[in-house]
Specification:
Layout: H1 4-11, E1 29-30, H2 60-63, H3 68-71, H4 74-77, E2 81-82, E3 87-90, E4 93-100, E5 105-115, E6 125-127, E7 130-136, E8 142-151, E9 154-162, H5 167-185, H6 207-214, E10 219-224, E11 227-232, E12 235-245, H7 251-254, E13 257-260, E14 265-273, E15 276-287, E16 294-304, H8 313-324
Antiparallel strand pairs: 1-7, 2-4, 3-4, 4-5, 5-9, 6-7, 7-8, 8-9, 10-11, 11-12, 12-16, 13-14, 14-15, 15-16
Length: 331
Amino acid sequence: MWTVGAVACLVTVLAGCGADLAKETFPRSTVPATADLDGGSPDPTTATSGGATGDEAFTSKNLRRADPCGLLNEDALAEFGTPANSRLRDYDKCSNYMKDKSGKELNFTLTVGEILTGADDTGTFKIGGLPASESELDDKTACFTNAITESSPKRGITLQMGGAGGLCEVSRKMLENIVKQVRDGAKPLKVAKGSMVDLDPCEVVDPAVIKSTIGESSESRLDTLHSCTWSAGSASLDLSFEISSNPDDLAEAAETKPVDLGGVKAQKKAEKSAGSDRCRLEWAHAPFPEDRELAEVVSIEFSNYSAKTGEDTCAKAEAVAKALIPKLPKG
């Protein structure tokens, strides 16, 4: 899936771009934990199903506002070596590429509210009272630790670590610190007036607009805490709120065209192939005060994989955008 944000990462290095691909790895093998960080042995039978702890701190509503770089802070990281500057990747993601105590590379990437695939929603051990799961690469150079906060869908706080090896023990200890910070009252992300940070993307658009766009049988899925997908048959609609470069600044590189959405200027790009049409709209809604080169960006993409001849996917995307704009917070 192409995005203006992806083009931004190709043409310039910004704090708001997606995580460096050289630093990102993906789990392949599951490794059972050998100790419960709460002080006992792992006991799957005592893990609360789906992380239903009754603690308001771990609801999606609360986690949506948390500052991931505030959680991945220097004081917490200093125990493991020499922290670098934490880099905010999006509302829910932060990375720190630091050095361990022997001067070797040690990388942390924290994602809050991530959908968990393949993770046991009852956990295999616990971290800070939450059910947890863990996996690592076969060569031990990356570890993925999840504190599970929801079971439907499976969602949690994920810490990815990269380095020379022996990472999972460090990952569990760091994630325990993060879970404690959230429970004690996580530092909120600093945002401008009119921010979209608190919006539930699956709830903000009128259901009647969704049905008229992709069909009566549409179903929604909260992909991240700031993005939602509706699907029905061969059609899908994606809405995301993200921290990224202003789409207007990337128009030439992204080969997008400006479009007026009733007083709001957006960038549009359409793609057509045999039996498949896609249209994407993006615009900057609010500034991001921590970085003048970034903004809070709305992205809407409508796709139809069995498009009828003459169907205008961009017209459908624009109709959703025009219905959404009045519901967004005012700056």
